[in-house]
Amino acid sequence: MPARQAAALIGDGMVIGASGFTRSGDSKAVLAALAEKAEHDHTRITLMTGASLGHGTDGALATAGAVHTRLPFQSDPVMRTIINEGKLSYIDENLSETAAHIRNGFLPPIDIAIIEAAAIEADGSIVPTTSLGNSAIFVQQAGQVIIEINQAVPVGIRGIHDVFLPEDPTGRAILPITEVWQRIGQQVIACDPSKIAAIVFTNQKDSPAETAAGNAVAEAIAGHLLHFFEQEIAAGRLTRSLRPMQAGIGKIADAVLSGLAGGDFEHLTIYSEVLQDSTFKLIESGKMDFASGSSMTLSEACYQRVFADFERYRHKILLRPQDITNAAEIIQRLGIIAINTALECDIYGNVNSSHISGSHIVNGIGGSADFAQNSYLSIFVTESVTKGCKISRIVPMVTHVDHSEHDVDVIVTEQGLADLRGLAPRQKAEAILRNCVHPDYYQELSDYFLRACRRGGHTPHLLEEAFQLHANLAATGSMKARILQSI
Q1: Residue 487: pLDDT above 50?
Q2: 355-356 and 360-361: which strand pairing?
Q3: CA–CA distance from 458 to each of 61, 213, 243, 430, 432 (Å)?
Q4: Active site members
């Protein structure tokens, strides 16, 4: 049926679970039709996905007032504004947790699942497209299922998915993944045909990812991190194969992985959430043996290249549900090297990855905590300054804590790398100040730290000044006004 007819099945107050993870494998038609419908009949829903959607869908839904509550992750600038205005409830949670929260009844029951597919099999099973995310749990738990068959995705994509639904937590068996390439599930999402309420055909590619090509800051950060890996190899803590890598979505993390293609590395593997351009660059270079993720989020050029010669890659990649890619048990067992992006870091190593000035959500925590808390090495990368040097990414105290210093091993900016392992708080501050701070802010931050140390404490702070940089920003549009000099 047409998308508008399928969208008419969605009533006011319903809970919708939609496929999609970092702009991949998302609803291209039905959610867009729902936004148009809501403008006329004021339908409002709770919308759950895997992660962010593409094609401006979240923004269109938010503008139409179609979403009452959104979870667990979004990255649309229009929806972000409406969330920060307090007009839309946003539940920002770790991406590993949503499926369990649904299964355990912590979240309301799902009325309809909207799932993008490459095909439907005779028994109703769904062949996913470029992401799995939370699609399997949505299909299992929903009362009805709307399937969007995307003819832009070749049916031959079947086989790259490993669909596994864990048992309830009580008495749960181990998740038997001991190698990145191990399969533990099925190639399709099981679906009772009687639940399929509508089939909608589309023909539209995923929204393309942005790349880091020509980004000098990202390349400098990558250079520092690659040098660090070389030092770890020399110390005998890593081999030329490193350990399975995880990299959060974004230009900087993608640049770090891309840099591995030019280094003296071999038999690399990825166990991550998102397979980006760098993944396929590493496969093409012969450096990467296998990559496991929950989605493929690619630039237009990389998307075209991969699907033009898909057989070259199909036996080197797997897509899994996000509660498997982000499972603490597997991350710990595999000894993951996790690389995620910070919005700001403080001088003691605490990380804010979600809120501007403590109040305004940007995107959300995503899966960064899942990996930071359980990885072999937890690395956070960020530029040292932004907005023409008006904002320092290194501050005395972060205004929102997503990752405490206890889960942060390494911080990297284009200025340098601070290895925080085995350091006490004051030593961490010295390492971060020495290696990561932009010269324009070094004196102010160093002065703050020295005066805080004179006052004393295990983690010295001047509480009356801790957020002075942020106060300067709010008052003048720049953090550069001098910190008040008080003793």
Answers
A1: no
A2: antiparallel
A3: 48, 42, 34, 14, 17
A4: 273
